[in-house]
Amino acid sequence: MKRLIRIGILVIALQVLCIGCWDHRDINTLAIITVLGFDKITEDGVDQWQVSAFVMQAGQGGVGGGAGSQEAKPEIVWRGNGSTISEAILEFIKRSPRVPFFADAYTVIIGERAAKEELLEIADYLNRLREQRPGAFVMVAKGNACDLFEAEPEASISVSRDLKDLAQNAADLKGIARGVELIHFTADLLSTDRDPVASEVRLIHTKEKRGEELAGPPKAILVEGLAIFKDAKLVGWLNKEETIGYNLLTTKISQGDIVIQVTKDDKLLAFLVEKSKPKIKANLIEDKLNINIVIEAKGRITEDNGINLAPSEITEVEYTISEQIGDKVMQTIETVRGYESDCLGFSEELHRYSPKDWKKIKEHWRETFLEADVEVKVNAKVENTGRLGQRLELNK
Amino acid sequence: MLKSLFKRVLGFSAGKGLKNSDQRPPNKHPLSDSLEQNLTELQKNFDLCADVVIRKFTINCEPPINAAAVFIDTMIDEKMGSKSILGAIMQETPSLPSNVQITKLNALQILKSRLVTAMSTRDTSDFFELENYVLNGGVGIVIDGSPAALICFVGGPQGRAIDEPITEPVVRGPRDGFVEDYRTNLSLVRRRIKSSRLKVELLQIGEISKTTIALCYVKGIVHDKLIEEVKTRLNRIKADVVMGSGTIEEMIMDEPFSLFPLIEYTERPDKVSGSLAEGRVAIIVDNTPMTLIVPTTFVSLLQASEDYYNHFIFASFVRSIRFAALNIALLLPAITVAIMAFHQEIIPDKLLGIIISTRKDLPLPIYAEILIMEMIFEILREAGARLPRTIGQSVSIVGGLVIGQATVEAGFVGYVPVIVVALTAVASFAIPNYGAGTSIRILRFGLIILAALLGGVGVMLGLMFILFYLCGLRSFGVPYLSPIAPLSPGDLKDTFIRAPWWAMLTRPRFTGEKEPVRMDTNQGPTKPSNEKE
Amino acid sequence: MEQKVKISGTQVAMLLFIFVTSTLVIYVPAITAKDAKESAWLAGSVLPFAFGYLTLRVVFKLGSYFPQLTIFQYCHLIIGQFLGKGLAISYIIFLLVMHVLVLREFSDFLNMTTLPLTPRIWILTSILVLATYGAYQGLEVIVRAVQFIFGIYVGGFATAILLGLSNFEIGRLLPFMEEGFMPIIRGSIVPSSWYGEICILAILFPFVNKHKEIKRKGVMALVAITLFVIIDVAVTIGVLGSNLTSSFAVPLWSMARSIELGEVIQRLESFLLVFWITGVVIKTTLLTYLIGLGLSQVFGFKNIKVVLGSMAVFELFITNVLLGNASQMHVILTHFWPPFGMVFELVIPAFLLGIFKLRKKRRTNHY
C-alpha cells in the first residue's frame, strides 16, 4: 500500500515536469486586436456575419512611438465571414499562427445593418468574452463597418489609436460626439427604462477635412454624432447640433470646449461652453409626464462680430444665449422623440425618484414619454470674454 | 527507505560520536609534588611543539626552591612576562619582609600574593587544566614540592587592530568593529554598557579547538529561560573544531533546515550593545569578529545600524525603500515571467508594442531567458566575491555589461530579462542582512518556476507557502514574524518605520518583557517657552 | 495536532472576517441583485447580519458551557454516545461540503478569468498542497499568517472599491425598495447561509484564551463583514447598474476591470485577484485544519499526516468528478447550499442548546 502511494506521488510529480503549462503564451505569439468590427452581410442570399479586425504589427521598422513615415503599415486588417460571430473570427484566425488577443481592443464598431438587427447578440458575445475590456468604446458606423477599416490614420500611428483618441477627446471637448463605453452601453441596453446610444463614425474624404489636395491620406475617419437605439435596434442618428444638445442634457461637462453659435441682433457670436450641469426633474401629473430641465452653463465668448459686450449688455447677451441653447436642446428632444427612444434618461429619472408613479406608467412608458410636457430652462453665464475686454475698436 | 539513503549519503552512519582522542579522561590528573615528574610529563605531552618553552629557574629563598615556567612564546607578551613574572620572582625576593619565609608548602601562596605582579592569576592542581591555560596564552609556574601550579596571564598574541567593520559600514556612527580576539571584543562591548548587570559567562567549545565563547546578557532584562536555553544548546555541541561562528550558528538553530537566518551575526559592537539592551543574548566567539545575537526576527533583516543614527524621518524612508527592495529582489523576475507569459492584459498597449518588437525573433521562452540570465549573474557575483575588492568590482561590472550586452546583441535573450535581472541584483544588495540576501536568492528561483507554471496564481501560492513557512518558524521561542504576526502594535514602531527616539518608550515585547519600560515619557523636544524675559 | 494552542480574541475576529468575506464578497452582488435589484445592499446585510448574530449567540452559549471542548467532543455529552457521534460525523460532512464548494468556486473563478486552459485538477492540487501544508503547521501558524495578510487583504479590496468610485453614480442605487420587502427577503437567504459560516467558532472555541472576549470580538467581526458587504454591493451596483450586476457571474471582477483612470491605472483586476487568492487560501487551510481536527477527535486518528493527506486526495476526487459544470454549481450554490448550511449553522446548535438546557433543568429538578 505504501509503495502504491509513493508511486502515485512520483507519477504526479513527473507529470508536472513533462506536460508543462497550459496557459503559457509567449508574448510574441499574440495577435493583438485593437479594433473589432461587426457587420451583417448577405452573401449568396445567406445572411452572414462579417467580422473585421485591426491587428497590430509591432516593430516594422519603427518601435512604438518613434515612427516616422514608414513603408509598412503598423496595423493590418483581417476579415472573416461566418454564420456565427465565433465562426467569422475563426476564419481569419486560422490563417495565422498567432493567437488572438482581445484585451487591447479599445473600439468596437458595429455596422449599420448589424446594429439594426443583431445588437443583442453582439453585446452578449462581447460581454461573455473573457478578455474584453469593459471600457471599450462602442461605435456605430454609417454604412458598413468593414469600409472603415480601409481608412488611414491621420493624427497617430494607427487608426485604432485615432479612433480611441477621437472618441475620448471629442466627447469631452468638442461635444460633437460621445465616447460610450461598453459597460455603460450594455447597462443601458439591459435597463428597463432607458435606451442606449453609441457614437457614430463614418468615412469621409479628406478633402472635406483638409480642404487641400495633397497632404493627408485618401480616406479618413470622423467620429461625429450619435446613433440612437430603441429596444436594442438602431433607429436613427443625431447630427452634430443635436449631439451637443444631448451632451448638455445628460452629462455634467467640466472641461468643455463646445462651440455654440448664437444669433443676436442679426449677428453671430460664438459661445464656448466650458462647464455645464443639467438637472432633470420628472413628475407624473395626472398620467402625463412632466419634465423640468434646468441647465446651468458657464463659458466664455470667443468671437463676437460687433456685438456690444459692455457689462450692461452682458446680461442681455446671456439671455439670448440661454434662449438659443434652450431651443437647441428642445430640438434635440424632438428629434429623439421622433425616433421614439428615450435615451435621455427621463423615464429613468422618474423610475428612480418616484417609483410609485413609475409603476403606474410602466406598461406604456414609451407612449408617456412621447406625450410628455417638457420645459427647458437654461442659465448661461459668460465668465469672461477672452483676453480682449470689449472688442477691437478701429479708431479711425 | 529514502531517509536511510539520505543518511548514508551524508555520512551519518560513519561512526557514533567522536573518538576520544582528546577527551578528558574521567579522572582528573593531579599534579605531582615532584617538579621533575611534572616537567617530564609536560615535555612528553608537548613533545615536538617547538613553540612551547619550559624555563627553569630558582626562587631565592633558604633553601632555594626549583621552579619552572611553562608557556608558549608566541602567545605571550615576553617583555611583560619577563618583568612581571620572572623578574618579580627572581629579583624581588629579597624585598620580602623578613618574617616571611618561603618554604615548599607556602611558595605558591607567597608567589601569588606578594611576588608575582601580573594582573591576573589563577592556580590549579590539575594537569589538564594547566595544559589548557598554557595553550590559552598563560604562563604556568610549576614549583617543586607544590601540588598546585600558578598561572599568570600577561598580554596576548598579536592580533588585528580595531578597524572599521568591512561588512557593515555606516556614514554616521561609530566605526570600530570587532576583531578576532574575544577579549578586545568584550572590551568594546563593555565600554558601551557600563553596568554591572552586563554578565559575561565563558565557555569552551570544541574538543580540539577549545574555542572560548563569551556569553553576554544584561541580567534583569533577559528572560532567564532564554539564557538557560542558550547555555544548554551551546553545551550540547560536541564537535572537534569550531572555526567560526557559522558552525555554532548552525548547531544551535531552532530549525536546522531553515532557509532564513534564525540567528543574527554582526561585526559592530554598537549593534550588539543595542540588542543586549533589548533583552537579547550575544555570543562572542574567539577567533572570529562575527558575533552572534539571539533571538532574531524577520524584521531585523531590514534593520541596519545606520537607521539609529540618522534622523527618524529619513530612517523611516530608507527602511521603506529597503522593504521595497526586498520585495523587488524576491518577486520581480517571477512577476515579469507571470505578466509576460500569462497576464498580458496588464501591460498598457503602447508598452506592449515595444515589448513585442524587442522579442520578435527570440528563440527561448521568457522563463528560460530569465533563468539563464539569473544563473549568469549568480556566477558573476560569486566570481566577484573571490577576488580582492578592487578587482572584484570591476570584474562584476565589466562581466555584467559585456555578457549582458553581447547576449542581447547576438539575439539569445531579449532586453527585458537583462534589465529585470540587473534591477533584481541591485535591489538584493540593498538588504542589510547578508544571510537574508542568500535565502532570497534561492527563493527567487523557486518563484520563477512557479510563475512559469501557473502565472500570477503560482506566484501568489508560492508567496503564501513562504508565509506559512515563516509563520511557523521560531527563533529561541520567539515567533519569527513578530511583531507583525502575532500582532503587538507597540513594537511596530521599529519595524517599517523608525519612531523618533523620544517615542521609543518600551522594549520589544518578546525579549524585553521583564522590564518593558526603557525611557521616560515626555522626552520629546519642546520649544522654549515664549515668555519674554 | 491538539497542541495546546492559544490564540487571542482579536486573532479569531480577523480569522473569521477573512474566512467569511473571501467567498462572500465576489458572489454576493450578483445573487442579491437578481432579486432585490437596487436594494441589494440591504438584502446582503440586514437580515444576514441578524442571522449571523443569532448563530454567534447560540454558538457562544454552547461553547461557554463546555469551554475546553470542541463541538465534536461535546456532541455526545449532550445527546448520548450514539447520536452524538452521528451528529459529529455529520458536522464533519458539513465542513467537507463547505470545503469542496469553496475549492470548486476558486478553481472555477480562476478558470473563468485568468487561467482558462489549465486543467482544473492542477489548480486544485496546488491549492490543496498549500492548504495541507498550512494545516499541518497548526492553528497558530494559520492565525499568524492571517494577521500578516490582513492589512494587505483589506487594503487591496479597499483600493479597488475606492478606485471604482470614479465611475460611481449614486442614482443607480435608486429606486429604493421598489417592490417592497419580499424581494429583499428572498435575496437575503443565500447570504445568510454564508454569514452563518461564523459557526465554525464552535470548533475554535477551546483554542481562544479569553472566552469572554469572543462574544465582543465576534460581534465586531460580524459588523465588519456586514459593512464590507454593504460597501461592496453598493459600489458594484453604483458602477454597473443592477441589471448588469445580476447578469455577470462575478460582478466585483467586472467592476475592477472597468476602472480606468488615465493610461496608468487600468486593468487592476489582476491585483484584486492576488488579494482574493490570499483570502481563499486561508479559508481552505483553516477548513482543512478543522476537518482534520474533527476526524482525529471523532475517530481518534493519531497520525495527522495520513489523515490530512488522504483527505486531500478524497476532496480532489469529489471536486473534480462529482460536482458538475458551472451552471450546476450555480444551482447548488443558490438552491441547495443555503438550506443545508443554515441547518448546520443555526438549527442544530440551537437544538443542542435547547436539549442541554432542558437536561440541566431536569437534573436540577431532581435534586
Sequence of secondary-structure elements of chain C: HHHHHHHHHHHHHEEHHH
In spatial order, strands of the major sheet of chain C run 1-2
Question: How far apart, in Å, are the first and last alpha carbons of chain C?
Answer: 40 Å
Approximately what portion of the residues of chain C adopt beta-strand conformation? under 5%
Oligomer: heterotrimer
Helix proportion range of chain B: 40-55%
Query: Structural class of the helix and strand makeup of chain B?
Result: alpha+beta
Q: What's the main sheet of chain C like?
A: 2 strands, antiparallel
The total beta strand count of chain C reads 2
Rg of chain B computed from alpha carbons, rounded to a whole number of angstroms: 30 Å
Helical amount of chain C = over 70%
Tertiary shape of chain C: globular
Blueprint of the fold:
The complex is a heterotrimer of chains A (396), B (533) and C (367).
Chain A lengths: L1 H18 L10 E14 L2 E11 L18 E8 L2 H9 L5 E3 L5 E4 L1 H6 L1 H10 L8 E5 L3 H4 L10 H16 L7 H9 L6 E9 H5 L8 E12 L2 E6 L1 H11 L7 E7 L2 E19 L2 E17 L6 H28 L7 H8 L1 H7 L3 H6 L2 E12 L12
Parallel strand pairs in A: 1-4, 1-5, 5-6, 6-7, 12-13
Antiparallel strand pairs in A: 1-2, 2-3, 7-8, 8-9, 10-11, 11-12
Helix pairs in contact in A: 9-10, 11-12
Chain B lengths: L1 H9 L24 H11 L6 E8 L5 E8 L5 H15 L14 H9 L4 E5 L2 H9 L2 E6 L5 E5 L28 H9 L7 E8 L5 E8 L5 H13 L8 H8 L11 E3 L2 H10 L2 E5 L5 E4 L17 H30 L7 H10 L7 H21 L2 H22 L4 H14 L5 H21 L1 H17 L1 E2 L2 E2 L54
Antiparallel strand pairs in B: 1-2, 2-4, 3-5, 4-5, 6-7, 7-9, 8-10, 9-10, 11-12
Helix pairs in contact in B: 10-14, 10-15, 12-13, 12-14, 15-16
Chain C lengths: L8 H28 L3 H4 L2 H20 L5 H9 L1 H33 L6 H18 L1 H26 L16 H7 L1 H7 L5 H4 L6 H30 L1 H6 L3 H7 L2 E2 L3 E2 L2 H31 L4 H19 L3 H41 L1
Antiparallel strand pairs in C: 1-2
Helix pairs in contact in C: 1-7, 1-8, 1-9, 1-11, 1-14, 3-9, 3-11, 3-16, 4-5, 5-6, 5-14, 5-15, 5-16, 6-14, 6-15, 7-14, 9-16, 14-15
